[in-house]
Batch of 2 targets.
Target 1
Amino acid sequence: MGGEGDDYPAAYCRQVCHLLRCVRKVYDRRMAAETLLLVGDELGRYGFPTGHPLGSDRQGAFLASAVAKGLDKRVAIGAPRLATREELQRFHSREHLHWVEIRSRLGDGYLDYGDTPAFPGCYEIAATVAGTALEGLERVMAGDAVRTFQPIGGLHHARRSRAAGFCVFNDLGVVIDSLRKRFGVARIGYVDIDVHHGDGIYYPYETDPDLIVVDIHEDGNFIFPGTGHAHESGANEAEGTKLNLPLPPGAGDREFFAAWERGLAHLHHLKPQFLILQAGADGLAGDPLADLRYTPAVHARVTRDLRKLADEQCEGRLMAFGGGGYELSNLAAAWTAVLGELT
Ligand SMILES: [Zn+2]
């Protein structure tokens, strides 16, 4: 006798193991649904003709790195889509859309003063960056996802009425104005760690007290677009809602983290309801267009802190975008750090 007694621990163990596997599966599914990664061929095509620093090889470089780390298994995948005219016009002027349409049909010349070349189909490809951001926003607002990452996006130099600095349409502005006009979410925290100042967000919302900005970048005295000085802190009733923190050429993680302490305190103080991160990778050491010396620890830390803040104050809602970055191994490392923290 005693068989029952001998088998009991083994059977109990099997049951517990089975239960743990079930819990793990449910947990994995929940985690996968929480973070939406927005990628696809139509989105990856956003890039300019051969020889331009922003090529169409950036999404592929990021994805190879993300897949190697197994991050693709921890996310849901969202597909790109085109933005309609009505959606683009939530932020952009009718004249700007018309201008891009003409240049897209002609397929040559520049969309701005000489940084952003036109090419055949550039209207549709740029409208896809904005449309994909809206796809992410709609999924978050519907509760299908809590947070998103869109590597090809974060085109923070385009203004309401013009292209600039490799940015044709400003997907971030389209998201912000859609949050207001379509979803009634007014108070938004915008964090920009791209090496260049996010002038295409700062100036359109300079007098808007509900757009809370933290923008850490290389000093505009040394780099495009020449703006984002510390005294630019919002205007009129928005005075004090924007924090521009320029860093001198050569600054690295230590200088960044000192600035970020201030940025995070600013966000905690002003209590946004929704967070957007422009996680440009061009502040990393070795970028061909800039002079800062960050490591991907910057991207990991900011994402981690924002995720925590979003969970505490914004029902988790956080949308992250890749932004700039012109050295492929750098952008792969920085964006993988972002996605790793989001999942
Ligand atoms: Zn940049």
Target 2
Amino acid sequence: MSAPAPLASLDEVIARARAAWRPPPKLTLSQWADEHFRLSVEASAQPGRWTTLPYQVEPMNCMSDPLVTDVTVMKSARIGYTLMISAAIGYFVDQDPCSILFVEPTVEDVKSFSKETIAPMIRDVPRLAAIMEDEAEEKGPRDSGNTIQGKTYPGGRLSLVGANSGAGFRRRSCRVAMFDEVDAYPASAGSDGDPVKLGKKRTEYFWNRKHFAGSTPLVAGLSRIEALFLAGDQRRYFVPCPHCGAMDHLVFRQSDKGGHYMVWPDDKPELAHFVCSANGCVIEHSSKRDMVERGEWHASKPFEGHASFHIWAAYSYSPNATWGQIAAEFIEARRTRETLRTFVNTTLGETWTEAGEAPDWERLYRRREEWQLGTVPAGVKVLTCGVDVQKDRWVYEVVGWGEDKQSWSIDAGVIPGNTSDSAAWVALDELLSRRYEGGAGLVFAIRMLGVDSGYNTQEVYHWVRQQDRQRVIALKGSSTAQAPLIGPPTDVDVLRNGKRFARGCKVWPVGGATAKTELYGWLQLEPALETGEIPPGFCHFPMLGPEFFRQLTAEHLVSTTDRKGYTVHEWQKIPGRENHWLDCRVYARAVASVLGLDRARPRVAPPVPVPVVAAALAARPPAAVVAPPPLPKPKPSTDSRFLGKRSGWLSKR
Ligand SMILES: [Zn+2]
């Protein structure tokens, strides 16, 4: 017995009725781009119609998909990301008008993006030209609301903002926030805080808000784009082996994590090909286009509103990104650490990891320079000091800072004493009163000293309270991996009614991971082979003993997997090593930042040391000096900028 053909269920009837009333579907971003987007001569070697490449379709359509809030693209160069994001701007202006915040690393970047990409796009994409023309006609040419950093259109405004300027984020709210090259953003937009957080905050009142972030990644553990990629569903582009059909993504090196991987015969990069991860089939470059056309994105984590993508140059159709070309670039790049790092970042689209690569202490020991310990070489502008507190001793380093963040170790040592006894801290008064001779009759004092408050905290505060607040600060290591080098200070002396002591002690958070990553990069530097030129950030050392160098290089960055399966990068002590002088250097560096080292523009003025007139010192013997003589007021010209006495965080205290 056969049942009669079933009548449509009530649900189906309702669904059909709903469908009939739905407004015509909007185009997806890739459909819109294929139909309306045009490449300008300024933005492309092949101006004219745009065709969305197979691997671009899904990231672009996620940008226009109402179910996706966050889209992250961690990428190499040469995959067309700038054009994808430009098309996204055009799409929202035309199809889904709303206010857009677009953030580039600096105000200068924003200006050139606006002139070289946005203006030509408005000129060359007919739909956008028409919209902007109508807007201009309606409001009159004088009041079209169009400037380099802002474009108005019916239903919204595009605001172009530099991540280095806090002011740009204080404007009105927006529904879509786009962050370009996030790894090049400063830790803080002016003094307003993290630029990505500030940008996202602008969107918080929209239920249908969107955040797009794209970047070439930089250093592992500090990379914003990698953190965002890991927070999303981690999609990689899988392509079929042309011989056996095995689907996998393309990777540069073979690893236990899988992926069709690249190989080439020695010295023959032009013969580079991929090896199929399933059956070892040889995949020739001639198969690339066909494979990419049949590729698909595979996520490795569940989707929870955040789609994240990784894509690199091996998928590129660009004629200068053939597999042979990539192999040749690698052979060229591996000659120096710096070029290899650039290759890993911009060709592989991966972060550069210092893992297992603590600088070699013996190399630093061998390249010590012959100046007398405790004297100040030419080039030093200001001295800072970092102090690490142990149970039975203080460990300190006095560091001289010069142009381009070059540094000189001036004095390093250990002061024995019971650090839980407040009276014993007078030993640090002596350290603070030390004077260091430079050339030409100049005498340097420690401009500012930072002491760790993580151990014997109350004794630290007690000593700091008694000191000149312009010369001594309490520091505390921050455990957050991406914490900036130095954060705004917090009050530790609070009265019972919750009010602050005007003269209370403050503690400044120090981003240890950030400082160590920077320092270890600097410790890898060498003077230029041919010219002998000293690179920015170079660290000079006098004839200190081997233990100093062992401690300075006692940690390495380790990548581990946390309980949720996310990769985390963590600084860890190498077993058997002590790391106190590393901490001292981190604190001395943080103090230099408080004084304005990171605001100093490189190579603009000749080095100006802090002169303490020798005659003034001779009047009383240094040993008897308890309170140091006041430092001369910095001249308002070049050195006040460097000393930062009345600028930045200092002025806010
Ligand atoms: Zn195969």
